[in-house]
Design a protein that fits this description.
The complex is a heterodimer of chains A (113) and B (113).
Chain A (H helix, E strand, L loop, with lengths): L4 E3 L2 E4 L5 E6 L4 E10 L3 E9 L2 E4 L8 E7 L2 E6 L8 E9 L5 E3 L3 E5 L1
Parallel strand pairs in A: 2-11
Antiparallel strand pairs in A: 1-3, 3-8, 4-5, 4-9, 5-6, 7-8, 9-10, 9-11
Chain B lengths: L3 E3 L4 E4 L4 E7 L6 E7 L6 E6 L3 E5 L2 E6 L4 E6 L8 E11 L2 E6 L3 E6 L1
Parallel strand pairs in B: 2-11
Antiparallel strand pairs in B: 1-3, 3-8, 4-5, 4-9, 6-7, 7-8, 9-10, 9-11
Classes of the chains: A mainly beta (113), B mainly beta (113).
Chain lengths: 113, 113
């Protein structure tokens, strides 16, 4: 298996623009997590899904952030409009049925200027 | 108070010494604990998991869990320069379909020659 795949790896955008981050979980995994990592706050859980259904979005910082999982093999995290304080590395992770360990993608480094 | 707390370091140990990394958690409902290693610019990778009180050994790594004290630790024996990285402690709570995995901010380990 290729592991969790995220795209793009790097994104530079101007303030106010819409940004869409993409994630393909490991095939057969039923949990998908979105995290944001910054030096100041570490790795923060934004939202997670179980069988494509959002379970907990309490970590989503504000209404500018939204996430969807239309099917078992694809999820998006959208920021609209983006702001400089959204600059961070965004990780997607997935976990298999009955398993406890989560596996991370390579991350998307977002820079909002 | 963060749900999972770690000293940010850096923790500096000489090559060949034992590195001791510590973590405390606030939610007594946490059931599983994990140590992830993250090299600079890379994604977190799982190195140890522990679910019950006591010690768990895997090669040069030993994870220790004390649920009464809400304390998790990771010992790295015979530390190598390649062990230099940030070590993230995580705790997981499972309730029905809820499966929240929360991370500490990480401890940076430096193994010196």
């Amino acid at each position: 298996d290729a592991g969790v795949i995220q795209s793009p790896r790097h994104e530079v955008t101007e303030m106010g623009q819409e940004v869409t981050l993409r994630c393909k979980p490991i095939s057969g995994h039923d949990y998908l997590f979105w995290y944001r990592q910054t030096m100041m706050r570490g790795l923060e859980l934004l939202i997670y899904f179980n069988n494509n259904v959002p379970i907990d979005d309490s970590g989503m910082p504000e209404d500018r952030f939204s996430a969807k999982m239309p099917n078992a093999s694809f999820s998006t995290l959208k920021i609209q409009p983006s702001e400089p304080r959204d600059s961070a590395v965004y990780f997607c992770a997935s976990r298999g049925v009955g398993a406890t360990e989560a596996f991370f993608g390579q991350g998307t480094r977002l820079t909002v200027v | 108070q963060k749900e999972v707390e770690q000293n940010s370091g850096p923790l500096s140990v000489p090559e060949g010494a034992i590195a001791s990394l510590n973590c405390t958690y606030s939610d007594r409902g946490s059931q599983s604990f994990f140590w992830y290693r993250q090299y600079s610019g890379k994604s977190p990778e799982l190195i140890m998991s522990i679910y019950s009180n006591g010690d768990k050994e895997d090669g040069r790594f030993t994870a220790q869990l004390n649920k009464a004290s809400q304390y998790v630790s990771l010992l790295i024996r015979d530390s190598q320069p390649s062990d230099s990285a940030t070590y993230l402690c995580a705790g997981a709570i499972y309730t029905g379909t809820a499966s929240k995995l929360t991370f500490g901010t990480g401890t940076r380990l430096q193994v010196t020659l």
